[in-house]
Design a protein that fits this description.
By secondary structure, the chain is α+β, with helices and mostly antiparallel strands. It is 34% helix and 18% strand. It folds into 2 domains: 54 residues, no CATH class; 60 residues, no CATH class. The protein has a 3-stranded antiparallel β-sheet. Strands 4-5 form a two-stranded parallel ribbon. The two termini are 24 Å apart.
Length: 131
């Protein structure tokens, strides 16, 4: 067993492993600039048997002065701010972003983010750790 950087020659093997898993999402483009780290575990024949890739994504933080104007005005401002940030991230090559909604705001704010701004709530559980 050996751990090394994923090489272009490993991509087809990783694709086969990925497809055999049967998950309902697309394999990322492993040669993309957004893939910033990629490792494989190889067997005695130097065949990739396991791998991991790290793709750039962003975490978004929001800051709202709830004493300013009305909720309607604040949401109109949020829509404009949302679009300006979406455009800037797209220009920088970022493919997706995440925000963590406090439990007490999921029913009101979370639903609005999905219905009016196109956000999605993942079915999969998110795990994280400090690097």
């Amino acid at each position: 067993m050996n751990i090394r950087r994923l090489e272009n020659g490993d991509i087809e093997q990783i694709r086969k492993i990925f497809e055999a898993q049967g998950f309902d999402y697309e394999l990322p483009e492993l040669d993309s600039n957004n893939i910033i780290a990629k490792k494989v575990v190889t067997d005695e024949n130097n065949t990739a048997r396991m791998g991991v890739a790290a793709r750039i994504t962003v975490e978004l933080y929001g800051f709202v002065d709830h004493t300013w104007d009305t909720p309607a005005v604040r949401f109109a401002a949020l829509k404009q701010l949302h679009e300006a940030m979406r455009q800037e991230l797209k220009e920088k090559g970022i493919e997706d972003g995440h925000f963590w909604c406090p439990p007490q705001l999921v029913k009101s704010f979370g639903r609005r983010m999905m219905r009016l701004l196109g956000w999605k709530k993942p079915e999969w559980t998110d795990f994280w750790r400090k690097v």
